[in-house]
Write a structure and sequence with these properties.
homohexamer, TIM Barrel, 19% strand, 6-stranded parallel β-sheet, alpha/beta, Aldehyde Oxidoreductase, domain 3, 12 strands, 11 helices
């Protein structure tokens, strides 16, 4: 994975906040660079690995003498106890890099693992689960890459790379029809017109106005069961959203939507447990 | 809360990643700045509020015309349905700021709420629950402030503001005694000497060497029950760590340690549900 | 216009490069802040104005004591001799800001003016002229806003906000059909599938594979005259590109494409002549 | 050419604005890094080459696996069809770097080519053509280097590296004499005293006051014909400025000035046509 | 004084390094913002004041609620015990800003005071004392401004704003004559040609080659006594340098040079003693 | 020494301020990169060396072709005339890096040398001399490292890594007792409680309240002679501060304190004289 300038700036922030004042413990109890060390990155739970490239970049920024060796490819589901990589270098810089490296790896693997759970929950249906813009501020690119590594897909990257008319836009425009028509006239041509609807009436209005994708927001399953085929009949793709969890995503998927978006993939993924063990 | 330069850099990253290419939807369906709007920040679950200062700074960076009015003080536990603040300004910049503002507020209130659960779980004991360095990279200062707002306390801020000898240091130094003695000679004087021990034998060695704080790591409850009074008898403060959860923290606290550290306060806190509703 | 963090960073670069070492002339010949001054921003040629918000931000960064007063709205075509704004403040900081302010204003108004020429050249046809990614590095957001102010439209903002399969992708995929099919399966759903074709044969292949937009690249007018209706018949939108100039754009537009993209709007727009005259 | 920190910050801005959200097309239609590729940088018009060092830095920032091979030295005039360099590396990062690399190269070669035209137009005279501060904001250092590569020379780099008293300074000081005298007393000693004059009367006043360089601004050719020898007789160097174009520069040069400054070298240079062709 | 972007970046570095992790003492012993406070900035030794604008900017960055009131103008020599300014605001942010504010003020006033000593030592002669590029890295602009406030003058700001041929250039060029001749042909015209000479023979060579300024480096007083009038007779200005101290500068000045440059003004100026006293 | 992101940002500032506009002299008198050069870093006075890693980083940022070879280890006291390192590379970039490299090296070696003087002055006593937060803004980490290299020790790194209750806190809290008690309850546990006292009465109050370290501020020697044993008897460590100089530090040390803090180590250390001589 290419690290963008924004990602590098996030790593710089992370290094500054943890070791900008040095490591008083290592300086007190070890001499010089502490001598050569070797440590393994160990998965302590089943997880989908993602983030070794960032971990390696963290190490490289701490010291040119650290080398990170990858053992497992990004996106692989590994069992607890798997060694996913090795870290070789002088003990002091490795200790200094340890926490920041792990914090990145645990969060990104946590997101990838959560994505895998969602992907598994819809397996066998036509739906694909996508992320949202509910990502950790500063982490958009990294978390979106972790989502893909886990087997889900990305919704728009930002406010500039997808056109999605939401309830507030509709209110301000005086209705679904008016909003969709404006978008068809004025939006950048590479973007499809997607509109959020909250009822069957709004859905009909959206289809009539020429929406290409309808986002069925917060509809109960029985309403979705009507809305989805009606939208397909109207020629639109269908995205479902609104409080989607691992418990509900399967039932939704079986109703036949094209896409299901879930903020929980990123905003509430628990960290995956990975440790760095010196050998 | 004063926003440090590092926090401002994180906000800049967040704004760039979401609206650095503008908002194609607002540009397509609204005219000009969209006209005056008013929206409320609504807690959709019980939560401990934290982060309105960051949310206000986000808005100010998007447009000098947005004003955020605080209704609830940081650190307050509010019921679902509480309006915690108001956002006033032209519709387009408010819509552009919405997601970034909420992403900060939801994560920080999530951490504060998680901290409150931990603090409540040890109420009535002498123990205080503290955070760790397992924070989201780039978010150290913000998450540590949220922990305090939620009623827990902060462990060291970084590798430079606390001396904590861990297992890897001990291995490299040839034993607990040697590591503690070096630290007593060489560490900055404002810092107490804290050392991690994994057994009663290591505990005794640490006490004999003059450790001021012992970190009892990953000990079962029955071992803790012996170790804690023994450490106190040796004149040391006692911190307990290792996979501490809301389920286990109460039982640990009742054994009498001074401090219990829990990475889960920060690394796995689910986002709190807060929305921005236009009125 | 909201200035994004990236735009502010560009202004910071610009200020550093011109006045980071101060202004030796003003320091030598004037005393203190030079006393109050008033200057007008004067269009010295017919032009479409764009960039006063940036100019005002430049001034504010140089000194909080400078005030920029707008006289003309962005996107307005003004005659030579029009006063488009006023600058009020102490003489020394105004002199220090002058060149940087003008450099932004001249380039952005130059782009807006060039865009207006293209827009005028296709007036009365169904085609809209769009920009490309051939913008001045560091200026993407500013120049794209100037294009809109001048009456043209924006193509994708960056590599992440539009899917456009070009000749090199096709070569690497083994053909138009294969590339389009992969994109339909794997691309983010908010994006339409656009593919560049260089011949009628490729056009047919693209339409058969389900392309939603076809980019007819570097085709002579007589080939375009066949390709455009054929693409429309196949249900696709049509973009034309390839060395489009003010001399050729009208003839192309009369053939009926939906879009014509022209790098020359941004990469070769001459600066508009605007001066700052003290009064 | 050494890339200064400011130049590197400009490149970072450029990369963020084009590929900060990744390349959705390459991700959709290619697998992994796309496999090894080789492409040539091809001059599609006669041009003076400048900017390969920046292009190589762009590539290196995108991926350490891309290698740029120079075929032609900076400042060389090449014929249409000349291969000026090669780009070797995995297809995906090369495609991601392509547009940014070309945008730098085309603009900088455009400036160098424009500079060459000006230099050629004054060949055989004693005049040298110099640039101005009318450069693209953020690009000062790069464009000034391109000017030299094209065969012209640099005027002052910024407000701190040359003393040039202009009409506004003169107005504020109460006259040419007073301004020049103040400058002689108070300016940094490494700088010559240059003053802009608009009439023969001002010229005489400047010479009497001890100006070392006179800038004859916006004078018609017949006035220049008197002013230049008079200035030389007074011991001053002579710079001519004011709307200088390729059409007028030769006639001015034949009147014998030392320097002719032309904003058009940088502010209105058309981009040179260079493509990246995969082989 | 306008703070340049570079100066603001230095202040950001300074704030991060001192209070990026907050102020644990204030947080522990005070409540909230600590309530309103008033403190005075007190000169504890005779000094030339410089830096209140930077101090005020530091405070503004820490909290918008702090106000700094100037009592004494920059460049004023004040007696010990003088109150030079007041700081008003909540106690906690004032305490957080205190050290950084004082560190800037003490260093900058230290430089201004040192400059005043040098200026006084040459009073009554025609020499002016100038600084060098031996400034604290990161502080160039600030220290050069302090030098002027103290009554000395600035040499070139950087490698781009003055042409000074030193011994190493001469060695590489094959002699003084060749170096000066190249410079006369190739240097930017706003810059005078200055050349360093170490002997009377080199001086003669420099004068013959047309040097406009000669830098007499590390010559004993008796050699200077011959060199200075000889240089003046040759039409050059004269700068003297090389280990100039307060003890030697007067005697040098009485020999009649135009300029004496002294690195000691900036690189070894002791901090001026200024305190912040709460009232 | 690992260079932190903050240190790298300081170097970037330093390079921009000196060579952001290039080197006009080298460009004028030399051709191309000037050809291969070799220079030695020469100590021109006895000094304790520190900073070669920063010097090497400076060179690497200027050009990848420069190589810095270390001859002497950091912290070594060398005689005048010692070659401490070599610089190899093309003449032009070496000349461009020279001044910035030396400015870092001279200041950091100046601090290390000053620290050595302080350390020597207390040799044979139990006291260790520590630095303060009176460091050059932007240089905190570098100067603290130089202090250690010179043989002194570090006090707290910043406001977050040490708890030190000063007179202003005491005033705001209503007395020493109250302040210490609050700190014991509310401070982060890794930090000892240190309190500044100005009289024997305050000392007694601090000891009674449980202070772990007392800072005896600005006490005359005869009062210190009473206070130090009294504090030790009360179980506290003792730090002495207040206008400590090389003249007074020895006498203070012989009274038996644990620590003596001296701002003069950093804020007024004269630069060490080091030159770069081409060979």
């Amino acid at each position: 994975m290419m690290l963008t300038p924004a990602m590098k700036r996030l790593v710089a922030l992370a290094l500054e906040e943890d070791l900008g004042r040095g490591d008083v413990t290592a300086a007190a109890v070890l001499d010089g660079d502490g001598g050569p060390a070797r440590a393994v990155l160990l998965a302590k739970q089943p997880l989908v690995l993602f983030g070794l490239d960032v971990a390696a970049y963290v190490c490289a920024e701490v010291s040119a003498e650290i080398r990170v060796v990858r053992r497992i490819a990004d996106g692989t589901l590994v069992a607890a106890g798997t060694v996913v990589g090795e870290v070789l270098g002088p003990a002091v810089p490795v200790l200094m890099a340890e926490r920041t490296m792990l914090n990145f790896l645990q969060r990104l693997s946590g997101v990838a693992t959560q994505a895998r759970r969602f992907a598994d929950a819809v397996a066998g249906t036509r739906a694909r689960v996508v992320d949202t813009r509910k990502t950790t501020p500063g982490w958009r690119g990294l978390e979106k890459a972790a989502v893909v590594a886990g087997g889900c897909a990305n919704h728009r990257a930002d406010l500039g790379s997808g056109l999605l008319i939401k309830d507030n836009h509709i209110a301000a425009c005086g209705g679904v029809r008016s909003a969709v028509e404006r978008a068809r006239l004025r939006a950048p041509h590479p973007l499809r017109i997607e509109v959020e609807v909250k009822s069957l009436a709004e859905l009909d209005e959206a289809l009539a106005a020429g929406a290409e994708i309808v986002l069925l927001d917060n509809m109960p399953l029985d309403v979705l069961a009507q809305a989805i085929p009606r939208a397909h009949a109207g020629g639109a793709r269908v995205e479902v959203s609104g409080g989607v969890t691992l418990d509900t995503v399967g039932a939704i998927a079986r109703l036949g939507p094209d896409l299901i978006s879930a903020g929980a993939i990123t905003h509430s993924a628990p960290a995956a447990d990975i440790s760095l063990d010196f050998t």
